[in-house]
Amino acid sequence: MENPERRIVVCLDGSSRSDQLGRQAAALARRLGARLIGLRGLHRPFPSPPETFARGAGAIHEVLEHQAQQEQALVAAARRAFDALVQPYGAPADFRPAWDDDPDVTGFATAGDLIVVGHPRLPGLSEALSADRLLLRCARPVLIVPTDWTRSIGNRVLIGWNGSRAARQAAEDALPLIAADARATILLVDQAAPAETAAELAASLRVRGVDAAVKTLDSGAASVAGTIIEAADEWAADLIVLGGYSRSPTVEKVFGGVTRSLLGAVTRPLLLSHLPHDLRRTIDGDRGAAHADEVSRPSSG
User: Fold this and answer.
1) What is the pLDDT of residues 266-281, one digit of tens each?
2) Rounded distance, CA 193 to CA 172, Å?
3) In 127-237, alpha helices (H)
4) Exposure check for the chain: N or C terminus, fewer CB within 10 A?
């Protein structure tokens, strides 16, 4: 049964890797009873060299009419391909074209409660539809799936925990994706948060039927991101959950950070949630004090 309050947007480009991502998103939509929205990247056709020399109102009108027909044909073909891709999964689905020259293309993704993108970024999509841009601009959780991933998602979950607002939001956003009989590990790296906060999260997951446990690790000579990836590999996780940019994105860009490191090395499905900067400031109070505190302590996000 469709959940009218839940919508999943998947960003596609029509390639074979895109088709695999679309199948993953369709299977997820069916499992969650959600409506799937296929956001398909398209390249705007341009007039041929002879057409660019058209002069006069009549000739220019013919060129524009021909271009409009080409665009309509591209959209129609992309829509048919999307419908054929998702039809076997039985999830209700909508299609939306995303032209590469559309300045508002990022806004289309906000139609979903969850945005699904591939890694590495599909070449037929604009930079505006990259995981990083969507995470920072859309105020929606972003699920990044390796384009060669064929396993299910949400049965063995690793939650990177640092007690931040972003981490709490990510854990909440992940709940629909976590299977009822899943196993979840809440991972604390370098004592990034009080252990009791992780224990509280584990207890709330157990109430939902999830076999949840808390693990602590020291990163040692490795990075926090490397420690999370190694743990996910060791535990065969099929979903990593993290608060995206718990520190300022600018700080991570300059000095590096867990979110940016993980975005560059996605080997397993990764769910990131980010609180917009103005919301974090409202919640956490003085931005300067909060920023100094975040930079000075270890972080898992």
Assistant:
1) 899 999 999 875 444 4
2) 17
3) 131-138, 165-174, 195-207, 224-234
4) N
